[in-house]
Structures are given as structure tokens and as C-alpha cells.
Amino acid sequence: MKYRDPISVIHNLIRKGDYHSLSDTLDIAYNSKGRSASNKVAICFGYSVLADIYGQDNPVDALQANDRARQMYPGDKGLLQGEIDFLKEFVESHKDELGDEDYAIIQVIVILIKSLVPVSQKEVANKICEPLGQNKINQSHAIKTESKASIQLRQMGQVLHLKLKPEQRTAIAKELTPHLPALIKAAEKIGLFDELRREKNKNKKS
User: SS3 letters for 104-143?
Assistant: First the structure.
């Protein structure tokens, strides 16, 4: 398959319902440099379609698709609302399986989601993300056995964390350090502190 014209390829694959090829095409277009405005529109639309197809049956890929669609327009309120609504639906559907550690991971996920929101939109983003906020930790309970939902949440955090540049991961890790131990533990679970540790070890050697 040729990828010279991602716009027509994306729309043709959506019409055909070939979502496996659509995912591959979108990933290539997403990772390409110098995207045009029309390409960004097509990528955003394609990932939004994929997010709906994956839904709650494939939540990790669905969250990533939602997030990649939003990355085309980081300040778009509607795209952010859609991503948060998806996460809220996941949490509501699995609330009986989630414990304190899971809600801490959810908070870290929200921080990661908001990390690329433009400064001018931070207040709006905070309001949209508020339902998944701090009070959830105190309302939850300890669950000894890790559920499938717990594993999926950790994978969601890892997917979002990997999209960031090393300096962005380091900045968020430093931002979390003064906060609740639960958040730090959650961030460690998804590897957010790995970059900060590498930076510290590098400084020690030098």
C-alpha cells in the first residue's frame, strides 16, 4: 500500500471498514514530519473513528486513539472532553474492581492527558478533568488482587507516558515528587520516573 496521499487512503479505509489497515496508515501519518493542515484533519478524524470502533472492549487502544486525535489539536475542548468522557466511562464500568492504587494511576493519567494542553486552555482542562480528581482516592478501597481493569489502566498510563519527549517526562516527574506518595507510586508503575533516574545517574557519573 502506498502512503503518498494519506488523506484519501484514510477516508477509503474508513469507507471499506478496514480498521486494521486504517490503524497502520494512521500510525505512519502520525509519526511523519511536516504534517499539513489537511493531513492533521484526516488523522484526527481517522483516530476518532478508531476510538469509537475500539470502545470499551479495547480500552487501551481506544484511549490512545482518542489521545492521538486530540494531539492534532491540543487546545480543542471537544476532543479533550471526549477523551475524559471515555476514561470516566471506563472507571464507572469497573469501579467495583478498582482500589486506591488504581485511582492514583487515574490521577497520573489525567496529569499526562493535560500535559500538552496549551497554557491558555489549562483552566478549561482542569474543569473538564475535575470529575476524575483527588477526592476519588479517599472514596476507594484497597483491593489485594490486581484486576484486568487495573492492568489496563497501567497500560493506558504507559501509552500516554511514551508519547512524551524525555524532557517532558522529567518535568512531570519533578512536578509529582512533592505530592502524595500514592501518586508517586502510581507514576513509578507506569515508568514515569525512569527518565528522571537516568538523568540523575548521568549527572552522578559526570
Answer: HHHHHHHHHHHCCCCHHHHHHHHHHHHHHCCHHHHHCCCC
Rounded distance, CA 64 to CA 160, Å?
Answer: 7
Task: Tell me how many degrees the CA angle 91-96-97 measures, rounded to the nearest 5.
Answer: 80
Domain that holds residue 173: 56-201
- C-alpha cell read off for 18: 478496514
The number of domains in the chain is: 1
**Each residue's pLDDT tens digit in the chain (206 positions)?**
444 578 899 999 999 999 999 999 999 999 888 788 999 999 999 999 999 999 999 999 999 999 999 999 999 999 999 999 999 999 999 988 888 888 888 988 998 898 889 989 989 999 999 888 654 555 555 555 678 999 999 999 988 888 888 888 877 777 776 655 767 777 777 777 776 566 666 666 65
Query: How far is residue 38 from each of residues 22, 24, 41, 51, 72, measured CA to CA in Å?
Result: 17, 19, 5, 20, 11
- List strand residue ranges (DSSP E) for 5-157, in order: none
**Does 95 map to a domain?**
yes
CA 51, CA 67: separation in Å to the nearest integer? 9
Indicate the pTM of the whole model. 0.82
Whether 18 maps to a domain, the answer reads: no
Is position 114 within any domain? yes
**Would residue 116 count as lying in a domain?**
yes
